[in-house]
Design brief:
six-stranded mixed sheet
Length: 277
C-alpha cells in the first residue's frame, strides 16, 4: 500500500455562508497544490455553529448554502481532491437539522454523509436531530471513519471504527474542552490508527488542528500563520511498524478473548502445594 497525503484545516467560521464557502475553496486549492488527496474541515464549517455563528436556524440562508455546496463539489472535481466538510444538514420541517460531515469525492459527488450520533445536551435539546450509524469511505485503498466533537468522550465509537478496519479517523470539532486534544491523541494511540483533528481557528490557541500517528505521536499542527497542515498516511513507515503490525493485531485478538479463555485455570488453594523451595 502506498502513502496518502491528507490536509487538516484550521478555518475561521463566520455567519456568512458565502464567506465560509469561499474559505473552504481557498483551502481546497492550497491542499491540492501541496498534493493532498483529502482535505478536512471543522464541525459547522459551511453553515456556522449554533450559539456561536447561528442564533436561530431561520438565520441560515439555506439556498445559499446549497449553492456554496455545489461550488465546492465542482471544485473538488476540478482539483481531483476529496473533501470532508462540516455543516448543518437541513431536514424537512419541523425536524431539526443533522450536525453533519459531508464526504465529497474527487468527482464532485457526495459519497457519504455522517450525522453526529452523540449530540451534546444543548444540541439534542434545542438544535439538532441525531444520527444513528457510523460512516466509512475509501480513498486510494485507505479507509476512513468519521466522528464529531463531543463524541471524543465515547471510546466505544473509536473502537467501533478500529473493528471496521479504518486506517484513519477524521474528527471534526468545535470544542471547548481544554484537554480535547489529549483525548483525541489517546484514541489514536489506543486504537493504532491515524487520527486527524480539524477545529475552528477561534480555538487554535488552545487546540490547533493536527494529525496523530498510530502510535499517538503528533505528526503536524496547523497555526494561524499556516491554517492548513499536511501529513502522510504511510503504513510502510518504520516508525509505525510496532503500532501497526504488532500492537493493533494483538489488541484485536486480546479483545476477542481467545488468547485468554484457553488459559483459564481453576485453582483450589486447599490442594495446592504451598511448600517453599
Amino acid at each position: 500500500m502506498s502513502r496518502l497525503r491528507i490536509a487538516v484545516t484550521q478555518s475561521g467560521i463566520s455567519r456568512d455562508v458565502a464567506r465560509n464557502g469561499e474559505a473552504v475553496r481557498s483551502a481546497m486549492r492550497l491542499a491540492a497544490r501541496n498534493d493532498a488527496r483529502l482535505v478536512q474541515f471543522p464541525e459547522g464549517m459551511l453553515s456556522g455553529y449554533p450559539k456561536e455563528q447561528v442564533r436561530d436556524w431561520a438565520q441560515v440562508d439555506w439556498v445559499q448554502l446549497e449553492h456554496e455546496l455545489d461550488l465546492i463539489r465542482l471544485l473538488a472535481r476540478e482539483l481531483g481532491i476529496w473533501v470532508v466538510l462540516g455543516s448543518a444538514h437541513r431536514l424537512t420541517a419541523p425536524n431539526r437539522p443533522h450536525n453533519s460531515l459531508y464526504v465529497i469525492d474527487d468527482q464532485g459527488r457526495i459519497a457519504e454523509r455522517y450525522d453526529k450520533r452523540f449530540c451534546s445536551h444543548t444540541e439534542i435539546t434545542d438544535w439538532f436531530s441525531p444520527g444513528f450509524r457510523p460512516a466509512t469511505f475509501t480513498v486510494d485503498g485507505f479507509r476512513f471513519g468519521l466522528l464529531t466533537c463531543i463524541e471524543v468522550n465515547f471510546p466505544a465509537l473509536f473502537a467501533e471504527y478500529e473493528a471496521l478496519g479504518v486506517d484513519c479517523v477524521l474528527l471534526s470539532a468545535y470544542p471547548v474542552d481544554s484537554i480535547f486534544k489529549v483525548k483525541a491523541q489517546a484514541h489514536a494511540a489506543i486504537n493504532n490508527y491515524w487520527l486527524a483533528l480539524s477545529v475552528s481557528a477561534r480555538l487554535s490557541l488552545d487546540l490547533g488542528s493536527c494529525v496523530f500517528g498510530p502510535d499517538g505521536s503528533q505528526l503536524t499542527n496547523a497555526s494561524d500563520e499556516h491554517p492548513v497542515a499536511f501529513a502522510d498516511i504511510d503504513p510502510d513507515d518504520p516508525l509505525f511498524d510496532t503500532a501497526l503490525t504488532k500492537a493493533r493485531p494483538w489488541r484485536a485478538r486480546a479483545r476477542h478473548g481467545d488468547i485468554y479463555s484457553g488459559r483459564r485455570v481453576h485453582d483450589d488453594p486447599r490442594s495446592a502445594d504451598l511448600t517453599c523451595v
